[in-house]
Specification:
16 helices
Length: 592
């Protein structure tokens, strides 16, 4: 057996910026007989930076200005009702005492010296707590807004003295593998990406760690790429990945970062199950995001003799462009909207198609809320990108003899617009959009309406995959509303299996998986585990049967294996997640 290592390069770049907070001192304007504070966004400002600057929360801004949920541009004015924010304290940094902390927060009390620190790119709350010898909760106690996460340029009040700061040269940076005696890491300097010149520092003393050299990190563990020149070995399955890793390019664009995360998760699964799986020969090609290189790879013996080929979406497009001819089974995990599986039995559609997804979601919603009257929420002038699904669902209700109700509203849904509904009725609300900005337009009124009911469960809400990305207050609102959604994927951050995966990933690669929804690291991990299950069930052959189904951390695989009703079609993954956000903050998950 020949072993070759995949070399993944990661560049850590220190970028210095500055952040200055100011007191809440906003002008007031009267609109429709209501007094509002108002603030006009400057160039480069974000909703979060404005919230911190004027001393309110991000959700406070979104509640009264839902149009900025997807970002704010220079010149846009936000409004905050004076009667709701009259008591907001100035964010001018006071002297924080242990009594203040104890009185205002259940977090651990801290008594002692503090200093101020500027957060650098890639640093996390947990990592800073470890570095400064305190707990994350103690940092949050002195910086309550940090509970929502920290980012490059934020100013933190840190418990302890400056003399207790660890040498930056010994502190791991995201993307850099810590040195360990059992895991040698070779690092060679590379040309740094352009540095951003720091803006003028605030007058008070803020500690910024010294700039560190940039490193290209070679990760030689686990031994993950197994390549044999003789592809006629029938005892082993040949699995090939074709992804735009951009290994020879300085810096990593988003597609390259996503591809790298996928590969890392994939390799982690193989390493964990190497003692129990059927032999697999894995080859990973960097397509370099080049059509020319991809075309040349498709003509190689390695690719043509693959048992399973997993291409990126751009590589998948080239398969059809060049008329790729091979008996390799092509597992399409990235071109979600592609329909070429309908005419090619060798293409496995790894994501449930939209038509089957709508059907499964409608089945689940109608079954869960039988006896409820459907209410479609439509914002005049708002986003309505889910109309394909709502039209389908409306048709299903009408076919069942149920007449839906339409509630139209402008900007924000109000309680007055819900007053015409029967107080004794049972209603399931269906919005026309899955975006956070549109959610914020109806959620407050719907929460008040639901909580005013004698039986809150008589008011239900169904929604979309987009909501799996909701965090903090928005996710809490999903629980308070008892929302039910459908999605091709779902992972609960606190689930023991997910936490264990994240810990294993960090231990192996020296950094946590990138925080994205869906997680590309978990996707790679789930796909590899599915392949191992399927190939092991059929002695190294890739085909479908009841024994090849797999439920992963985030994605599941339930390919149809009886294709008599669809002759000439490739297998399709029919797994669909139905997720219910229960009022006890737990999540119920079923797979259709």
């Amino acid at each position: 057996m020949k072993l070759r290592f995949l070399h993944l390069f990661f560049i850590a770049v220190a970028v210095a910026t500055s952040f200055t907070a100011s007191a809440l001192d906003l002008p007031i304007k009267t609109v429709n007989k209501t007094d509002y504070y108002y603030y006009t966004a400057a160039k480069g400002e974000t909703v979060l930076s404005i919230a911190r600057k004027i001393g309110v929360t991000r959700n406070d801004i979104l509640l009264y200005n839902p149009g900025v949920a997807d970002g704010i541009r220079e010149g846009v004015t936000i409004f905050l009702p004076v009667d709701q924010f009259a008591e907001v304290a100035s964010p001018e940094e006071p002297v924080v005492t242990s009594a203040d902390v104890a009185a205002s927060s259940p977090l651990p009390e801290y008594s002692g010296p503090t200093f101020r620190y500027k957060v650098q790119k890639g640093e996390t709350l947990f990592g800073l707590a470890h570095r400064f010898g305190c707990s994350p909760d103690q940092i949050v106690a002195l910086n309550p807004w940090a509970d929502q996460g920290i980012r490059n340029g934020d100013i933190l009040t840190i418990p302890g003295s400056r003399s207790g700061i660890a040498d930056a040269s010994t502190t791991p940076v995201r993307g850099q593998t810590p040195s360990r005696t059992d895991r040698p890491v070779q690092a060679e300097p590379v040309i740094a990406e352009p540095q951003v010149e720091p803006e003028e520092e605030p007058e008070d003393s803020i500690i910024t760690p010294p700039a560190e050299p940039d490193y290209r990190i070679d990760v030689p563990q686990p031994p993950v790429i197994e390549v044999e020149e003789d592809y006629s070995n029938a005892e082993a399955a040949n699995v090939t990945l074709m992804l735009p890793l951009m290994l020879n390019t300085e810096g990593q664009a988003k597609p390259a970062r996503s591809a790298t995360e996928f590969v890392r998760g994939f390799l982690l699964a193989l390493d964990q199950r190497k003692d129990s799986m059927s032999p697999i020969h894995l080859t990973i090609f960097d397509t370099e995001n080049s059509a020319e290189r991809t075309d040349s790879l498709l003509s190689t013996e390695v690719v043509r003799n693959s048992t399973v080929l997993i291409p990126s979406d751009d590589a998948f497009a080239r398969i059809h462009a060049v008329g790729f001819s091979s008996e390799a089974k092509v597992l399409n995990m990235f071109a979600v909207q592609d329909t070429t599986y309908k005419a090619n039995t060798n293409i496995y559609q790894g994501n449930i198609p939209a038509s089957l997804m709508y059907e499964g979601a409608a089945d689940a919603f109608l079954d869960a809320y039988m006896g409820y009257t459907p209410v479609f929420l439509i914002c005049r002038g708002g986003r309505s990108e889910k109309m394909a699904f709502t039209d389908y669902l409306r048709g299903r209700y009408e076919a069942a003899g149920i007449t839906p109700i339409d509630v139209m509203f402008s900007n924000m849904l109000t309680s007055a617009e819900l007053e015409e509904l029967d107080p004794a009725g049972m209603y399931v609300f269906i919005p026309a959009s899955g975006s956070l900005s549109e959610f914020n337009k109806f959620a407050p009124a719907l929460l008040a309406y639901r909580e005013a009911k004698v039986d809150p469960t008589s008011v239900a809400l169904v929604g979309y995959p987009d909501w799996t990305a909701f965090r903090s207050e928005s996710k809490a609102e999903l629980h308070r509303l008892g929302a039910m959604i459908y999605s091709r994927f779902y992972a609960e951050d606190s689930a023991p299996s997910v936490v264990d995966f994240q810990n294993q990933f960090k231990q192996t690669y020296g950094c946590a998986p990138t925080d994205m929804v869906p997680s590309q690291a978990m996707l790679g991990y789930d796909v590899a585990n599915y392949l191992i299950t399927s190939l092991s069930a059929f002695d190294g052959q890739f085909r479908q049967g009841e024994d090849s189904s797999h439920t992963g951390l985030q994605s599941s695989f339930e390919f149809d294996y009886d294709l008599e009703e669809r002759p000439g079609c490739g297998p399709v993954n029919q797994a669909l997640y139905i997720i219910t956000f229960n009022s006890d903050n737990n999540v119920s998950i079923t797979i259709q």
